[in-house]
Structures are given as C-alpha cells and as structure tokens.
Amino acid sequence: MFHKPYGVLSQFTPEAGSRWGCLADHIQVPGIYAAGRLDADSEGLLVLTDNGRLQHRLTDPAWGHWRRYWVQVEGTPTAAALLALSQGLLIQGRPTLQARARSLEPAELEAAAIAERQPPIRHRLQVPTAWIEIELREGRNRQVRRMTSAVGLPTLRLIRVAIDLMDGGAPLSLDGLAAGQWRLADGPEAQRLHALLAPVSRGRGGARGG
C-alpha cells in the first residue's frame, strides 16, 4: 500500500519531457506495479502487487470495487449538488453510475489530520472551499473532477482514502501512511487479497476514478 503524493505518475518509468515524477522515486521494490491508477495531480491510496491475477481482479470494471475520495472543492456544496453527484451525471456523453456523495464534517477532517499539499493549492480569497466525500464504482478518465465541475464545484484537491475489497471487511485505507510512504500488506490484509482470487460469480461495476 502506497500513499501517492501529488505530482507522481502511477508508473515506475518516467515520461520523457514530463514535469511529473514516478513511483521509482519512492519505491525500490522490483517486479511490482500499480493495481489501478491515480492521475499525477491526484493523491492517495495505491495498491501495488507482483500478482497479475490480483492486479486484474482489483481493476476489472466488472467487479465494481468502491473507491472513496475526499475532494476539496471550490464553492459550497448544496443538497441538490450532492444528490446529482449521487444519482449520476452525463459526462462526455455517457451517464455515470450511481455513486455516493456527502459533505465532510470539520471534525472528520480534523481527526484525519490531512497534511497540506505540496505544493499548496491556490485559493481565491473571495471564493469559499469545502470538502466532500465521493465514492465511485467506476473509473473513467478524470471522472471525479468532471463530476464536481458539472455541478459547479471545481476540484482543487483529490485524495483517494480507501478501496473496498467488497468482502465484508473494512476497506483498505491510508491510515498510518504519510504522503510518500508505503508498507507491506499485513497478515490479515494479505489473506483477504489472496482470497479475492478464489473462483466466485462476477459482480458488476467499475474501477479508477481520479
């Protein structure tokens, strides 16, 4: 599990001419790769593995793993905007799947102790900002940003905080990981990930989202 910082590509090789860094700047473990991606200007949880079947299982849209994002937006979320995000929006000519969206309470943000992004986001003095939680089962290109923009709430900062393995247990999360840090899956987590490879009937849904 890796807490990807802002400005890092979800791959181990740099792109020629790119201003972004890559995973090799933070992780020196051979033979692993990301199971799913985050855009370079997004932050948060990446699961990395050397198991091709597990990578496919976690990213195949048919399984529809819920991804949870905390999103700092420009503006003040209204009940109507949150409902629209939840019910689905027309993005690039196609409707999004039903999602979950709610405003985050100050106490939740304080408890999470989110560190300031580096570099810091740019604030407009006359425009308020707020944090919302969005959970998606699909992962279209820059989907969260397109969705918040569609309801008049441009995204300033995007953090994936959790990935649900859909096995009845707690989602994998960023708990205990500062930006740029990684750790091995612990024993119970490794067992749950391995259990995903057991033959079961397929679900329905989607896979990336940032």
Describe the structure.
The chain is of the alpha+beta class and 210 residues long. It has a single domain, classed as 2-Layer Sandwich (Alpha-Beta Plaits), CATH 3.30.70.1560. The protein is 20% helix and 22% strand. It contains five helices and eleven strands, in the order E-E-E-E-H-E-H-E-E-E-H-E-H-E-E-H. Strand 10 and strand 11 form a beta hairpin. Residues 201-207 have low confidence and may be disordered.
Termini Cα gap: 17 Å
What do we call the CATH topology?
A: Alpha-Beta Plaits
Structural Rg: 17 Å
Strand content: 15-25%
Q: In terms of quaternary structure, what is this?
A: single chain
| CATH level 4 superfamily | Alpha-L RNA-binding motif
Q: What is the CATH-assigned architecture? A: 2-Layer Sandwich
Shape: globular
Query: What is the tally of beta strands?
Result: 11
Which structural class do the helices and strands define?
alpha+beta
List the domain count as a whole number: 1
Biggest sheet layout = 7 strands, mixed
Order of helices and strands: EEEEHEHEEEHEHEEH
Mean pLDDT: 92
| Low-confidence segments | 201-207
